[in-house]
Structure prediction request, 511 residues.
Amino acid sequence: MTCGQAKRLFADHWSQSLSADQEIALEAHLGGCDVCRPEADRLGALWSDLARLPAEEPGPGLRPRFYDLLRGARSQPASANKPQMSWRIAAGIALLAAGVPIGYALRPKDPELAQLREEVSSMRQLVALSLLQQQSASERLRGVSWAYRAEPSDSEVLRALLDRVNSDPNVNVRLAAVDALHAFGSSDAARKAVLGSLEKQDAPLVQVAIVDLLVDLHDRDAKPVLRRMARNVSTDAGVRQRVQWALEKLQ
Amino acid sequence: MPFSNPAGAHKLVVDAFYGNVTVKGYQGQDVVIEYTRGGSAGPNRGRRKPEEPPPPGMRRIGGNRDLEVTESANTVTVKNNILSAVSNVVIQTPADTSVTVKVISGRSIDIDNLSGEIEAHNMNGTVKITNASGAVVAHSMNGNVTASLNRVPADKMMSFSTFNGDIDVSLPADSKATFKMRADNGDIFSDFDVKLEGQSAPQIVEEKDNKGGIRRRVRRDGTQTGSINGGGPEMQFTTFDGRIVIHKKQAPAPTPAPAR
Prediction:
């Protein structure tokens, strides 16, 4: 098992959905690999910590300050308008004054937060990549839906999605993968790859989805390919109609 | 055909060039395959040798024009290739099998009473799924996709698509799900109380035109998202030329006691 393959199995390993053979192979690799084992330990600890993250607790000063405020409010008679108005203003300022130190005490320690964000995004990538490799079409669909949450700069997820568009045996998965590619439109490599994929597709639903994607990305480089498709009589008439529409839109 | 490990997860794959395929879940452990040979008209009729009567006085003792059935690693594969004489295949498999059926030129795929994952693909014909309790991923290029689900599993995604054909899906009235729907040239109907997301007014999109100015166009209705009963696992519905109908399944009426 290579490190890349092992990493893809991490997410399944923690959610206990690996087959017995895969478990054995993964344990064997981790036993011998000095790069993957600490990474697995670290990310594994993060996985379980994420589940146990407590809700944020306010600082110790909140409770006594709050009761002071309440006592102050109760001792004032709520009769005349004028004293009530000024009391409200005072209360507002007091709450603001109470809130500022609370917020300051609660601020996340910056470097830790950035690292946390990076690890969560790496986790999402792992889950998406792992699901996209599954045998079950329904699980690959879930992988595509996780891919929506990946960073637009994530080239591994992009490559996996393009792979699905080009060679997934299931039409619905290819279709979903095309839709997910809308988020990666800023990448030139992605646009070229999508265009290359169009002529290799045989399912008309997927062809239409790719044509729509090219229009959304304003990909004028697509025009020669689209013109070829429009003239090709073996392409379905409905698809050719959509291609004509796309050619107009890309003027 | 038995599975090598009946207790483990098992899969059935049917790969038919043509023929009508029916798959039914049942209580047994093995996969039981019945088929009929026939002269059903297919677009490839010219390529097949027509059924010749046996020479006089002879009866058929063998020869290989039927299905190819293999089992490996708990997956039973049933193949029916272009030169096969088989026209209708009826398969019974344990109800928790995961089933993948792919038919190129057959008229119909019928799948009933399965709790495993169902993947159905028919190029030129209908897909009809009934009494399903697992995830369903179904596609027909030229034909309707009809599905009646007994439940919507909370952790699985489903997808239904057709190019030329309607999608008609029934779900129990209390299902929780999130729908992602797109009907390029057709309407979407449902008797569920679907909470739709997104604007009701058509979106106007601004783009640069080729003279450097700004041009506006009304954005075509893209994919719509809606949820029922608070939302749940995602179910995708996509047609190019057809309608999408999502039914609320009524609880079955209690069957009357048989008269004696």
